[in-house]
Amino acid sequence: MEPVRVTDFAKAKQRGRKLKLLTAYDYPTAQILDAAGVDAILVGDSLGMVVLGYEDTTRVTLEDVLHHTKAVARGTRRALVIADMPFLSYHLGVYESVRAAGRLVQEGGCKAVKLEGGREVLQSVRAIRAAGIPVMGHLGYTPQSVHLFGGHRAQGRTLETARRILQDALALQEAGVFALVLELVPHKLATWLTRRLEIPTIGIGSGPGCDGQVLVTQDLLGLFPGFNPRHVRKYQDLHGLCSEAVRQYVHDVESGAFPTEGHSFSLDEAVLEALEGRRFTRGTIPLGTDLRRFTQRRSECAWSEPSPSCARSWPKNAGGTIPFRTERAPYTQGTIPTRDRPLARLFTQPGASAWCRPWATCTRDTSRWSRPRAHRTASR
């Protein structure tokens, strides 16, 4: 699928197709949003509140946005990546504005930048565009001016403020922004502005009349249970789901249900024995030992360790008869034919603490095996 470009925004408005935008601040979230079909991913300075835990966006730095833009750009293949220009990155003159926007594109990997404000930022908008970087505008409630507004408040509810938003919108359109975010603007005003403007409008808390919508992804997913603004619809209670998953994990670790052997990797017992310097002395072989690791010392009718330097042999049977079977047939009392050479794994000794040697070359009584009884079946 072809990647989304800034020119596709104008085409969407002309065709009446709604634009879908969401925020992302990391690689996996960007992958999810990109695969889900959003038109653009905004690396918003809202990361200050939903990722870094700040009270507002004014403490977010250019380095913060750069760091998260890089991650989002790596996780995006189709959607247009737009980076927010943070507080004071475009307020200190045209040179600083172009430099900051250039870093977001060159180092961060975004394809466009967004900045807040109206006529007061026109010089920066024109200079950034002159450098070949697409610009998205932002009017209405602008979070970087939260202290000036006295909090998170809707804008444009009076004639004076509505007229100012209109004038700013027309000025930004003339300066060349490719789209305009309208945040917390009364829906009738937002709809009226959308009809007046040639560029597409992207609403957040501004009603259904805009050309597109944007939300903070963490709000959409319900990651903050105590945050319930009017303009957000929670499509999932991810906070509850994550909390339950973590509680289950804590319980499983405490109870020993996790991890199991299936969550780890196997190790040849010989490696562990060599690491510990462990050697079996003459006596019994512990149950659970893999006898396939040992060779037969025919001269002693016993098992020996595989090391060439080892001359110790394994013990005779601890006593009693041992149920067994081979892949061919069970044997009656007597020696096991040498030609069959039953595999060690086919023998077991229930109720005892050791294995005994099964090889047929022995002629002593201890090499004799008995046929398994009806009520006792050998296990592999």
Quick synopsis:
The protein is 31% helix and 11% strand.
Question: Can you walk through the features of this model?
Answer:
The protein is 31% helix and 11% strand. With 380 residues, it is α/β, with parallel strands linked by helices. Helix 2 (27-36) packs across helix 4 (62-74) and helix 5 crosses helix 6 (122-130). It starts with 6 loop residues before the first helix and ends in a 76-residue tail after the last strand. Mean pLDDT is 81; it is low at 280-284 and 294-380.
The side-by-side strand order for the widest beta sheet comes to 1-2-3-4-5-6-7-8
- Rg for CA atoms: 37 Å
Mean pLDDT: 81
Residue share in helix: 25-40%
The fraction of residues in strands falls at 5-15%
Please state the overall shape, judged from the principal axes of the Cα atoms: elongated
